[in-house]
Write a structure and sequence with these properties.
This protein has 593 residues and is an alpha/beta fold. The protein is 31% helix and 11% strand. The protein has 17 helices and 14 strands. It has a 5-stranded parallel β-sheet with strand order 6-3-7-8-9, sandwiched between helices. Strands 11-10-12-13-14 form a 5-stranded parallel β-sheet, with helices on both faces. A two-stranded antiparallel ribbon has the order 1-2. Strand 12, helix 12 and strand 13 form a beta-alpha-beta unit. The longest helix has 20 residues.
């Protein structure tokens, strides 16, 4: 998963051994090395969409171009962040407006996930967001309306990324005219690409086989047709255009040919919301959904947010790299031990809290890049436990209210609990503490355990040689395997890259704590060899995800604190989204059991 500008393709790609099927379909394949923020060269001639070519759009009764209502265009762009426009139907629209409203989609959640502001570790200030997101289109938006309204919706503005999904309306009520659908999508995607040089088409999501009025085979055909359009544009010399297979992501969670799925409303194509009980009931008073119900809007938003954050230009993320350096006196640790520790108690920290009996359980094992002080761990907790798009919900963990996908713990307990110690340190320390972190085998079986060791193993005060590092990972894996549920997975999270010319301005910690970038590369390779091919291991390759955005051998990047190994505020959220989006689809087995 390397390179700066990628196409997210349905084509069969050689996956890293051990990756799950949905990850195979979501693999990024190299499209070009031209910077995503560059202006498009020449635009291939767009296919004409005339009145005679329009035809009917299912669910709207549209028969002529003039009858289409586009509504208002976009608002002004945000000069401080990348700007993203999502165009789509009910599946991508904003959050539901009432507890019984099934029309809300992932758009509002994506806007909140990426919007910021995000807390900086060193400056203790707020940094800008990863992107400002707008949404246009309605529940009745199909390819016909999108093709007619795309000039209005783009608004003549220069977008950093345009994300498009149309297909559900085209497959509702009437047979799909594949040729016409392809022509409409071609016009939309060429216009989207021309508006900024970067566009993603998001596949239409599947529905249960009990959903009336939707042609399930049609959805598959529409996705195939849309992917074909993306490939045609790629082959025509427009490199920054891609296909996100959200159909595969939902199928990974729900299974194939499902009759019901926890993240999707029963007998509708829409996804479960984060609203509180009571859920809608039938005429006889029977709840239409069982509880607790994970938020399908948050689930789909995580996968879309991951694709967006990998595609937007990092140079527009605020604050600029140079201003992320703190003025003296700098708040920073003088060692890699970080702020995730509290004094007292066991050197391994607290044992895990009792597991939740109705919601999947996840454990994060990592160092200061994942702890509460400087890392992404608390943000993963927010993303998976809480749904941030509904006003008043963010900050609650009532399963009937927040729609959590999983309950998240960190090794050693979340700081600042007395006796907590989130610092996993080196793999040698991991061998010593793994039993305490996992809990009593009789009571603790985890659905997901995310693991990272590497940067401390490369740090001179705790250095672990390559042979011992490999052996330690094998020992840790053996212990984890014994404490996964029957369908549980270990997620290996790679060590993030270090700036090529990093020279930290922290006393006694010059040159980024003297951690050689080459050692990080070598130890990531060893971990890949250890865990590759293991069926219960999924890879969260944040090393390559960061390099994808920052560029290989970067010297400065808005995702990382200047002259330091720790992520910036936006970087913490970036890493959190990467992990949450990796974990979310593999939770399906736990929810369906």
């Amino acid at each position: 998963v390397v390179g700066r500008n990628m196409a997210i393709s349905m084509r069969t790609t050689q996956a890293r051994a051990g990756q799950s099927p949905w990850l195979l379909l979501l693999l990024l394949t190299l499209a070009s090395s031209t910077p995503a923020a560059s202006a498009p060269a020449s635009i291939p001639p767009a296919l004409a969409l005339t009145r005679n070519a329009v035809g009917a759009s299912a669910g709207t009764g549209i028969t002529a171009l003039e009858s289409l209502e586009c509504g208002p265009g976009p608002t002004a762009l945000n000069a401080s962040t990348p700007n993203v426009l999502i165009i789509g139907d009910a599946i991508s629209s904003g959050p539901s407006s009432t507890p019984t409203d099934p029309t809300g989609g992932y758009g509002g959640n994506v806007a909140t996930i990426l919007g910021g502001p995000f807390a900086q570790f060193y400056t203790k200030s707020l940094a800008g967001g990863l992107a400002t997101v707008q949404h246009l289109g309605s529940a009745d938006t199909g390819s016909v309306q999108a093709a007619a309204c795309i000039p209005t919706w783009l608004g003549g503005l220069r977008w950093d990324l345009v994300v498009v999904n149309v297909g559900l309306v085209d497959c509702t009520g009437v047979p799909l005219d594949v040729d016409q659908y392809q022509e409409n999508v071609m016009k939309v995607m060429r216009a989207a690409w021309a508006a900024g040089g970067n566009a993603i088409f998001v596949a239409t999501t599947p529905t249960s086989n009990s959903t009336p009025g939707v042609n399930h085979t049609c959805i598959k055909h529409a996705n195939t047709a849309a992917n074909s359009v993306v490939e045609q544009i790629l082959n025509g010399g427009s490199p920054h255009i891609s296909f996100l297979d959200l159909y595969a992501g939902v199928t990974a969670f729900c299974g194939s040919n499902y009759s019901s799925c926890p993240i999707q409303l029963d007998a509708t194509p829409s996804f479960a919301t984060a609203w509180t009980a009571p859920w809608p009931v039938s005429a006889s008073g029977v709840p239409l959904q069982s509880m607790p119900r994970p938020s399908g809007q948050q689930f789909t938003a995580l996968l879309v947010a991951q694709a967006i954050q990998r595609a937007v230009p990092v140079a527009k993320i605020q604050p600029p790299v140079n201003t992320s350096v703190d003025p003296p006196p700098r708040h920073a640790p003088t060692s890699l031990l970080g702020d995730g520790e509290t004094s007292g108690g066991s050197p391994c920290g607290l044992p895990p809290a009792p597991l939740n009996t109705s919601i999947p359980n996840m454990l994060i094992i990592g160092d200061s890049v994942s702890d509460s002080g400087s890392g992404y761990g608390p943000l993963v907790r927010q993303l998976l436990e809480q749904v941030p798009s509904i006003p008043g919900v963010y900050g609650h963990v009532d399963p009937h209210y927040a729609g959590p996908l999983a309950i998240v713990q960190h090794n050693g307990g979340w700081a600042p609990a007395p006796g907590s110690n989130e610092q996993a340190s080196s793999s040698a320390n991991g061998v010593k503490c793994i039993a305490e972190w996992l809990g009593n085998p009789a009571n603790f079986k985890w659905d997901v355990i995310s693991v990272n060791f590497g940067i401390h193993d490369c740090w001179s005060p705790q250095f672990v040689n390559a042979t011992a590092y490999r052996a330690n990972l094998e020992t840790i894996y053996a212990a984890i395997t014994q404490q996964l549920t029957p369908t549980g997975k270990m997620v290996w999270t790679s060590t993030t890259p270090i700036a090529a010319d990093c020279k930290a301005q922290v006393p006694h910690a010059t040159d980024c704590y003297n951690v050689p970038p080459a050692c990080v590369v070598a130890y990531n390779t060893i971990a890949g060899e250890v865990f590759g091919g293991k069926p219960n291991v999924v890879f969260n390759d944040v090393y390559n995800a960061v390099n994808l955005v920052c560029g290989r051998n970067f010297s400065t990047c808005a995702l990382q604190h200047h002259n330091d190994v720790h992520p910036s505020g936006p970087g913490r959220q970036f890493l959190a989204v990467e992990l949450a989006a990796t974990v979310a689809p593999i939770l399906g087995d736990a929810w369906r059991k």
